């Protein structure tokens, strides 16, 4: 087994439920900080996690954290999209503006790639660290008292100092932590998503430019719909996604097989390039319609005795237009592991409360950016944008992207704890 830098053992035992990006990142970070981790995942095999999904993005605030996991960022660069810009078009096809991200280099790396491939790199790293990852483990209940927390998994009770519930948007743990079932609302939008080989379009005169000259990244912005296109690995792989109005007739965020004919109806009258991208999609490509739910911010991420904590999508589902869902889930694990390290085994509930205090406002500010971008795009005023094309750029704010969650936590922990102990925050 490879040797990785690790803080001295803290004696803190951690159970993590769910090995999505949030859970696996929390597991690695807890290991880095010297805690002992058991990661429980209901999927029977890792392929069940890696085979779903398409493009996923980690902006500098998320991707910089991978640099601390030896070998991970280097492996990601090999499969990630090699663009430092986004070309934006009017929905009828007119080029409007190129937004460059090159100046953000000093903020940290950006990683955009296939969800499964990027996940697999992290998973292999977790394995190389020797983490205790148990597949085929469906957690059905949670419990806690003053001294410990635990879960019921496959009918058996397992306990530790803390349980981290990272079960994603359909989390059962959320109900147990909150004491009530918070109802998701329809966001009124859904996303069609598709990924296939660049070979399928490399001889198509209208759209071959999207894969023939290396990687590309472009977006077509129209009334209540935006259509994003990427090519990766020097055009060998190709991906499109579009967010559209949805009837909202759905109780929970989920994914349904999509139909090319339905997609074509949405982009009727759009630029020929856009229509051709959809039309040229191979019949066997995996096309899904991903319904997006909205949740009001939860009143809390933590259980009454502060030994169970929700992280990732279980705590705060994101809209894709925020481009932050995955990055915020990585930040969660980093902050929680650091708080546990600073608090020590005797003060686990204090660590959990400090984690919530540090994360709550930031994560909800980040969440709000998703709605802002969607509105800016879907209700674009083209007369204004032609005068000031930057008005349609993605907001790239330093407070969000030029941010080191670990450093911030180390710097602020003492002050946050003082506030908690002084009774100024909810205890
Ligand atoms: C199938 C799928 C495809 C996605 N595709 C994309 C994409 O293409 N692009 C994008 O930007 N985002 C995508 N996302 C969302 C993105 O992965 C998340 O927003 C982000 O990474 C935060 O993830 P998370 O770990 O909090 O939740 P998730 O990624 O949902 O992970 C939760 C994990 O918990 C496990 N789990 C759930 N309940 C239990 C239980 N009771 N016991 C044990 N384990 C349990 C699940 O099997 C899962 O592995 C996708 C999510 C899913 C689930």
TrEMBL record:
This is FAD/NAD(P)-binding domain-containing protein. Gene3D superfamilies: FAD/NAD(P)-binding domain (3.50.50.60). InterPro entries: FAD-bd, FAD-dep_Monooxygenase_BioMet, FAD/NAD-bd_sf. Pfam families: FAD_binding_3. Belongs to the paxM FAD-dependent monooxygenase family. It comes from Karstenula rhodostoma CBS 690.94. Signal peptide: none annotated. Keywords: FAD, Flavoprotein, Monooxygenase, Oxidoreductase. The lineage of its organism: Eukaryota, Fungi, Dikarya, Ascomycota, Pezizomycotina. Residues 13-176 form the FAD-binding domain. GO terms for molecular function: FAD binding; monooxygenase activity. The keyword Iron does not apply. It comes from the Eukaryota. SUPFAM superfamilies: FAD-linked reductases, C-terminal domain (SSF54373), FAD/NAD(P)-binding domain (SSF51905).
């Amino acid at each position: 087994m490879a040797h990785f830098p690790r803080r001295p053992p803290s004696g803190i035992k951690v159970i993590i439920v769910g090995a999505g990006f949030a859970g696996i990142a929390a597991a690695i970070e807890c290991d880095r900080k010297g805690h002992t981790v058991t990661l429980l995942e209901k999927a029977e095999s890792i392929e069940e996690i890696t085979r779903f999904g398409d493009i996923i993005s980690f902006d500098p605030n998320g991707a910089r954290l991978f640099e601390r996991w030896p070998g991970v960022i280097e492996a990601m660069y090999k499969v990630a999209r090699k663009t430092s810009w986004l070309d934006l078009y009017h929905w009828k096809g007119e080029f409007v503006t190129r937004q460059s991200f090159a100046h953000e280099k000093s903020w940290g790396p950006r990683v955009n790639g296939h969800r499964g491939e990027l996940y697999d790199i992290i998973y292999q790293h977790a394995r190389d660290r020797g983490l205790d990852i148990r597949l085929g483990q469906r957690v059905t209940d949670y419990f806690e008292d003053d001294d410990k927390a635990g879960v019921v998994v496959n009918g058996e009770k397992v306990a530790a100092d803390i349980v981290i519930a990272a079960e994603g948007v359909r989390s059962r743990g959320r109900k147990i932590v909150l004491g009530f079932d918070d109802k998701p609302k329809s966001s009124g939008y859904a996303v069609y998503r598709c990924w296939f080989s660049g070979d399928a379009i490399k001889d198509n005169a209208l759209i071959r430019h999207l894969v023939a000259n290396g990687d590309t990244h472009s977006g077509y912005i129209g009334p209540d719909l935006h259509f994003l296109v990427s090519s990766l690995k020097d055009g060998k792989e190709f991906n499109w996604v579009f967010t559209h109005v949805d009837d909202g007739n759905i109780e929970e965020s989920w994914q349904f097989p999509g139909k090319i004919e339905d997609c074509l109806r949405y982009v009727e009258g759009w630029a020929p390039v856009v229509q051709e991208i959809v039309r040229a999609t191979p019949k066997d490509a995996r096309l899904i319609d991903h319904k997006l739910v909205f949740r009001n911010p939860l009143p809390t991420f933590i259980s009454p005795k502060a030994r169970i904590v929700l992280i990732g999508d279980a705590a705060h589902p994101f809209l894709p237009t925020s481009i932050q869902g995955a990055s915020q889930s990585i930040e969660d694990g980093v902050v929680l592991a650091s708080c546990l390290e600073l608090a020590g085994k005797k003060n686990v509930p204090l660590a959990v409360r400090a984690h919530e205090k540090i994360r709550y406002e930031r994560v909800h500010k980040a969440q709000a950016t998703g709605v802002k971008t969607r509105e800016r795009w879907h209700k674009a005023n083209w007369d204004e944008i032609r005068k000031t094309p930057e008005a349609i750029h993605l907001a790239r704010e330093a407070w969000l992207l030029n941010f080191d969650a670990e450093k911030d936590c180390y710097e602020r922990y003492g002050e946050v704890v003082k506030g908690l102990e002084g009774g100024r925050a909810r205890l």
